[in-house]
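Researcher: Let's walk through a ligand-bound prediction step by step. First, I give you the protein sequence. Second, the SMILES string for zinc ion. Third, you return the three-dimensional complex as structure tokens. Ready?
Model: Ready.
Researcher: Here are steps one and two:
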Amino acid sequence: MIRTVSLIALACAIAAPVSAQAQTAPAATGKPTVAQADAFVAEAEKAMAAASLDANRVAWVNATYITDDTDALAAKSGAEMTDLGVKYALGAARYASLPGLSFDTKRKLDLLRGGLTLPAPTRAGASEELSTLTTKMSSSYGKGMGTLDGKPINGSDIEAAMGSTRDPAKLTEMWTSWNDKVGAPMRGDYAKMTSISNEGARELGYKDVGALWRSGYDMTPEQFAALTDKIWKQVEPLYMALHTYTRWKLNEKYGDAVQAKTGPIRSDLLGNMWAQEWGNIYDIVAPKGAGDLGFDTGDLLKAKGYDPLKMVKQGEGFYSSLGFAPLPETFWKRSQITKPADRDVICHASAWDIDAKDDIRIKMCTKVNADDFVTIHHELGHNYYQRAYKAQPFLYANGANDGFHEAIGDTVALSITPDYLVKIGLLDQAKVPSADKDIGLLLRQAMDKVAFLPFGLLIDKWLSGGVGSVAAPVSGHQAAGRARRDQVRCGREISHPGGGAVYALLPGAGVAVPVLQGSVRPVRLEGAAASLLVLRQQGGGDEAERDAEHGAVEALA
Ligand SMILES: [Zn+2]
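Model: Step three, the predicted complex:
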């Protein structure tokens, strides 16, 4: 499950109405002063705070009611926000190195300069084009359909079905149809989006968008990349053991024709639409004896008559048990907890902070299963964090960084232990696994958490080494070769169900990329994210593989 916080509510704190006037924008000539910098920051903060409310509401309506009209409104609103964000970011760059700045002014200037998710260049029409592209991709993702048994199925249902289906042919059908119908058509738009936002990033003084994103961790982009590589090296042996063991068990279940004993694991066999978390196939990999936990959280929820609302209430109960105040009444009135029957929405789970005060919400298409029970605890982690910093000045009303924002809910979700399930009446005390089942519990956890790390890293490397640093749109073959190289580098080694060893990260997936939660930079664009995660064998896969073998890949490095 990919989980995000709303782009607008969190990652893109830079928002302001087009009517906001930068009265204290730095003069085109003359040396700026500290007093001017202070005034500039105060004005920017005020304008953005005022603007964000409307922009957030527009984005919410678009995400929960996708029509041509809401797409148009969201694109317009997004373009206005981008224009304002760019204006203040450029202004901030002028003041940033001024000596004698107070801590707060300096910090806020840095936030203004680096806070945009997808900057547009200042040339006429660029922000409108960029916003239209991102809105279109996001909505295409929300409306997208794959097939199962030849019949249309939406992304939310595919996500659930891939967790429980064990028929390889059906899994392949869902995976392939989703990627072909939803991911592949985004390729051209994604390439355009990349090109425009890289141009915007360069105007702000960054090498590309990837460098802009990696600058949000209180270290240089290069230091951040080196740190993630170092940490990955520490985890890699554990991942490789998990990968090898999982491949062996899949081979045992499905046979050589479906999953070979060596080489990559077929991505559609891993129980997740993006092959990013593998816990849904725990039943296949559980070792005899120690692996038999004796219960499944999804089965317990169903047996006890939980519905999506009751699951969210239970999530709130966890935070209440820690001493947090209950969620506001508006949370229950305004959240989207289940998928509306009569319209297109973006199901991709996210947490929103509409007014930077109390109007917090989640947007999910909750299903009664273990994944979504965890996701609820995760999303609420964002909401409680948002509420915890609501008294901060607007530019500070955000996470320490986006990774930290994700970590709160994920840490809390680790508390969904057998003991917790007993405390909330889901599990009988007599069914709590004994200490000799710890191996099983840890393996179950590793299937999700350890498997995710190379996935998150791969996406980051794809962005930073591929799309993020290439001025011109990346061609399919280039992307294929790069993805292949990065797979190897990240030890991920997952293959397309079609059997090819080469895939491309679909540009469409790129939209998703920005939204990924995880080890690296989690949250960027809401929604469309997931499609991106689509590792897809290209029509010209063989050719792409030949390119890779002949060193074309390295030429891209
Ligand atoms: Zn999240």
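Researcher: And what stands out?
Model: Residues 3-5, 378, 382, 406, 409, 517 surround zinc ion (CB under 6 Å). The chain is about 55% helix and 5% strand.
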